[in-house]
Amino acid sequence: MTAHALSGARDNSLEAGMNDHITKPINPDLLYQTVQRFVEGSYKDKAAEDTAPAAIDIAGLDAAEGLQRVGGNQQLYLKLLRDFARDFENVSQELESASPAEARSLAHSLKGAASNLGAVLLAESAEKIEKAAREERAFSPLLPELKERLQFFVEAVRGLTANEDPVEPSS
After folding, report:
1. Along the chain (171 residues), what's the average pLDDT of each consecutive run of 10 residues?
2. What is the pTM of this model?
3. CA 109/CA 107 separation, integer angstroms
């Protein structure tokens, strides 16, 4: 498993002696199918059986993909969406005063979290900022798009979960 998703990374992994190559964000079905090829037993697509169609409709969010990443657990997915909204709501303001290194790190964290939830538009905006910061190019012209998308997403998540009870950890 690797974060290296650039072209040629898979070939490099296989040439280095790896059995296979899986990139982040992790797709649970692909992970299980890949592991199953190398171990005895049978893989059953539990997520596909257990996942009810999500009633989560936010522009720029692939809820089906996000639900798949949490094994179809809609309650957990809603909790993760709320956590994301809380943890990342101010990241665009933090980026305004960030150095290129700080911006690269913040954008990378945002991109990863957004990708895991299926927030494709946010991940796309964060990736642009991460790339510009890594190349030491001005990233401030990219901030308005991120700010608009992030604000919309956070408000939509809050509206979606406003009537939900917080998910308590199982004891």
Report:
1. 65 75 78 71 47 71 93 92 96 96 97 96 97 96 97 93 49 41
2. 0.69
3. 5
